């Protein structure tokens, strides 16, 4: 039954949901129950919270009569080796707990160069809704390298912390076991090294080296696109490592299947382990990042100012960091002015103007209407049916969040509505986002589309 249900779920869910949350589950079936075993608590929680309805519906469709009950629980995954063709499930500990301080960015006790940046650790990584899962998974990989999250694949836009997180795992592995053979490489470097090895007749050495590692971290694998020979070599290295229960960690700017110019067999293997996205930081996280970075760089930044910047700049983490440095430099050069909201306004004048210009009420309405496949005129109209009323409220809430327009101004732009209607919409949407995940996801997607 579960095998059939999986087929339905594969159709119902998007690729990422299916691969990340459903495939890792193992099923134990008897006549009236399907017991799903989750390999970790966060997969358990996630499926429980967001996908159980889909799962139950799929099972009910396969077995409409005598539908078995579906239970999900944590499992000792390693003991249940159900499928031959699955990823290695027996974790191979890489740990020897005798912690000397990690070597800094140089050849460790293994004698090989790890290329790890020791500043990129879990301690310096700020967590928020946008990267919580990625961070939790990364910690698990660091704790149990070569375990069930192999390969571990992190994807997402630029400046969202993929490289940082990858290094954090590497640094943790070395801290736990200084002898571990951990290597970080940008994919372009891998290609270059391979070309050099070929040129100097050292390809066997090259192969032996990469296949001897305990953990291989390859960044930005989208740069492998259309480099057939490198893909071929990487494919074999990758398989050797996986077969030996060695950890492979990869990043890319998009979901593996969507990387153009990558062989299908590679794409499909990349999905064998755990694939997780990092999202752009939400407001709270942007504040936390600004405060954390300020304290790292010894910049005195009040919460009020951090709020101000976070409210107005919604870019990625790297942009936030850049803005902070600019504000600091500006303050230094203007006779060491303290960093106030006024200072920030001046220092970031062009950036702030740019953000303002992009986000207009028209733009918001058009984007929301497109998203929900309704007409902009519906947002102005008096119609109250749910399929236009809800998007209208969302558009109002977004207008309040993204622009400096007053409530009456926003009401005007929505067919001359009263400011209390706008206020009601803002509150309603806030409340709904807490309980309705779909709506919350839609809201965040819209914000992203509008601000990018
Ligand atoms: P990506 O590889 O996704 O393009 P990086 O890992 O290079 O992004 O991150 C860009 C910069 O932002 C780095 O300086 C990194 O330390 C910082 N950064 C990104 N995400 C976080 C985070 N969650 N907490 C702290 N710093 C972060
Ligand atoms: Mg990167």
From TrEMBL:
Annotated spans, Disordered: 83-115
Domain III, AAA+ region as annotated region, ranges: 115-331
Superkingdom, taxonomy of origin: Bacteria
GO MF annotations, alphabetized: ATP binding; DNA replication origin binding; lipid binding
Keyword annotations of the record: ATP-binding, Cytoplasm, DNA replication, DNA-binding, Lipid-binding, Nucleotide-binding
Domain Chromosomal replication initiator DnaA C-terminal: 360-429
Main location as per UniProt: cytoplasm
This protein's record includes keyword NAD: no
Entries under Pfam families matching the protein: Bac_DnaA, Bac_DnaA_C, DnaA_N
GO biological process: DNA replication initiation; regulation of DNA replication
Chain positions covered by the region annotation Domain IV, binds dsDNA: 332-452
Ranges where the AAA+ ATPase domain occurs: 148-278
PROSITE patterns from the UniProt entry: DNAA
Location relative to the cell: Cytoplasm
InterPro entries xrefs: AAA+_ATPase, Chromosome_initiator_DnaA, Chromosome_initiator_DnaA-like, Chromosome_initiator_DnaA_CS, DnaA_C, DnaA_dom, DnaA_N_dom, DnaA_N_sf
Region Domain I, interacts with DnaA modulators: start-end pairs: 1-86
Domain notes: Domain I is involved in oligomerization and binding regulators, domain II is flexibile and of varying length in different bacteria, domain III forms the AAA+ region, while domain IV binds dsDNA.
Chain's role: Plays an essential role in the initiation and regulation of chromosomal replication. ATP-DnaA binds to the origin of replication (oriC) to initiate formation of the DNA replication initiation complex once per cell cycle. Binds the DnaA box (a 9 base pair repeat at the origin) and separates the double-stranded (ds)DNA. Forms a right-handed helical filament on oriC DNA; dsDNA binds to the exterior of the filament while single-stranded (ss)DNA is stabiized in the filament's interior.
The protein, known as: Chromosomal replication initiator protein DnaA
Species per Swiss-Prot/TrEMBL record: Thiosulfatimonas sediminis
Source lineage: Bacteria, Pseudomonadati, Pseudomonadota, Gammaproteobacteria, Thiotrichales
